[in-house]
Design a protein that fits this description.
42% strand; alpha+beta; six-stranded antiparallel sheet; two-stranded antiparallel sheet; globular
Amino acid sequence: MKPFLLVALYILVAPGCVGVVNQNPCGDFFRALQGLPNESLILSTGEFQFLWDGAKHSGCEVRLVTYDALIRNEHPVPNFEAQPDSELYRQGWRANNAYAADGPGSSVYGIEKGKTLCIVREEQPAHIDDHGKIVQSKTLTITVQCREIHG
């Protein structure tokens, strides 16, 4: 009787869970990053500290941590910038340059679709060693945060 109950619960609950991920914009980013070898790949929903302004917002977040040695030349990292020739653009996403910043070892940019704003941060820190040579970190972290925009 218990196995039947578990299967019945799965049938009733699992389709709703899948629906939530499919309606959740982070689900698409999560699936795009799943093909990359990684140290960790996490999809979460709820409240988080927004990358752009540090304020608390509700929404979803995807965080990938990988290493050069895992992806080097064999696994291209998806481009989420929503440029006119991209798949994201064809899906209705548009770049919002008000949320763009670039610096040594990291970049941040925003994309919007309808009332959804997503901030993408790519980090691969670098430093100058004792010999004046730029040394880039072997760790690459990609974070995507999405929330509803009001007004």
